[in-house]
Each structure stands twice: as C-alpha cells, then as structure tokens.
Amino acid sequence: MNNYINYEAQASTIQIEDITSDKDNASILRRLKRNDPDLTELRLTRVHLASDDGDYCPDSAHELGWFGYYIGKNTTVRELCLRSSVVEGFSTAIEPFCRGLRKNTSIKEIVFVDFAGGEHFQLLGSFFRNNELAVIELELDTCDLGADGCRLLTSAICECKGTLEHVAICNESHHEDIYGGQLANLLVALSMHPHLITLQLSGSIIGRNECKTLATVLRCTTTKLHTLNLDRSNIGNTGMNDVGAAVANSKLLRNL
Questions:
Q1: pLDDT per position as a tens digit, 78-114
Q2: Beta strand pairing status for 41-44 and 137-141?
C-alpha cells in the first residue's frame, strides 16, 4: 500500500468505507473523487482541531495515503492547509501522500501550520519540483524553520516551476530567529520570482545583512511587489534605513 501504483490498481474496486469509517472523511473523499466544484479548500488536521466540512482528519496511515491519491486526481481544490500533527502522527504515509499530492495541478495555495525542524519541508520541495502548475501562494504559520528547514524551503523555492506571487511567513515568537541564520539565502531564492506581489515576514528577527539583501531584492528583482509586511519584526535602525530607501524607489509598492 506504500506504492502509488497499488493505489491506482485498487482505485476502481476499493470502497470508500474500506478507507475510512468516519462519515465526514468519507464525504470529503467522495467529493474529491467526483471533483465537486464547491470543494475548493481543504485542511488536513487532527480530529480535535476539526471545525467544518473542509477539515479532513485521517485516523491511519492507510487513510492518509488514499487521501493523497484522491487529491492528486482532483481538479477543483485550490487551497490546502497542512498541520504538523498529522504529518508527525502518520510518518509512514508521507511518501505515498506526497506521491499523490504532487500529481495535483489545481492547488494554488499551500499553508503549513505549526511545523518545526527541517525534514517536513522536503514535502514542499517534492511538490514544487514535480508540479508543472505549481503553487502561487505559500504561507507558513507559526513554523520554527531552523537552519535545516530554511535551507530546504530555500531549495524548494528555487526549484519551483511556477512563479510565486504571495509569500507569508508568520512567526508568533518574534524574539527568536526561526530561520537559523539562513534568512538572507531565502530572500535570494525569492528574487527568482519576479512576479511576487505580496511578501510578509512578520514577527521576524531581520539583521543588518538580511536587510541589505532584502533591499537589493526589492530594488532589482521583485519590482512588482505591492505589499511588504514586516509587522512585529525586530529590525535595527540601519537595516530599516536600507529597506526604507529601497521602498522609497518602488513605483508599485502600496502597502507597508
């Protein structure tokens, strides 16, 4: 069951009831299977976090693997939110889940919530490398990347076949360096996406070198940026002057 070909071979005969006994999960799988046009948002979470009919709460690795298969076939879902508790709880299903996910061509926004460390961001890299119609909006909510995670995220952004237009990294513990000293490299990776419209780095520690890099990116590559959000970020006066000078020369930047 860990091989994607097995899912394909069994898809015509397996019953939804053989995948999940949860009626809400079964409903979502059926809607995915028939490409329900009203199913545009999905959140992969745990049962105790479920809030509405867009929350899918797998009870087993078996179920998560099939969820990946069906979302890979789906053409209506536009936004997918992944919580770390699901990924950590069913680690044996990550490979088949990723294999299915990267077949998807409809998802335009992917959100990571409460991820820590680096290994889980290999999922993002795999998706970007293999999806011809890659995500245009990427959000990381309360994720402690660390150096390894930031390197993997940077690599994924570099390998993205599409063009990112919206990137938001929101850190609630803004006294910590969630980037492990790798923010400058991440900013350089974002310079490869000249159609970037929104960049949010809220609650971040942004040192002088990172500010210089950000200023260069603003001046030279992300010239279509409309919104730059550095809310609650720890930036020194010198760094702010560097960024401010780049912002002042922007013709399209409207929100700061």
A1: 999 988 777 666 767 777 888 888 888 898 998 988 8
A2: unpaired
Q: Residue 216 and residue 143: Cα distance in Å, rounded?
A: 26
Do the beta carbons of residue 209 and residue 237 sit within 8 Å? no
Cα–Cα distance for residue pair 201/189, rounded to 1 Å: 14
Neighbours of 15 (CB within 10 A): 7
The greatest distance separating any two alpha carbons of the chain, rounded to the nearest whole angstrom, comes to 64
Compute the Cα dihedral for 58, 64, 66, 72 and give only its sign. Answer: positive
CA distances (Å), origin 237, targets 43, 123, 186, 240, 245: 40, 37, 22, 5, 12
Alpha carbon 184 to chain centroid distance?
19
Confidence of residue 244 (pLDDT cuts 50, 70, 90): confident
Quickly list H helices, the chain.
4-10, 16-19, 23-33, 61-73, 84-89, 94-101, 122-130, 146-159, 183-190, 208-220, 237-248
Report the predicted TM-score, pTM, of the whole model to 2 decimal places.
Answer: 0.84
Supply the Cα-derived Rg of the chain in whole angstroms: 19
Give me 79's structure tokens: 């936004």
Tell me the per-residue pLDDT of 126-147, one tens digit each, with 9 for 90 and over: 666 666 555 789 998 888 788 8
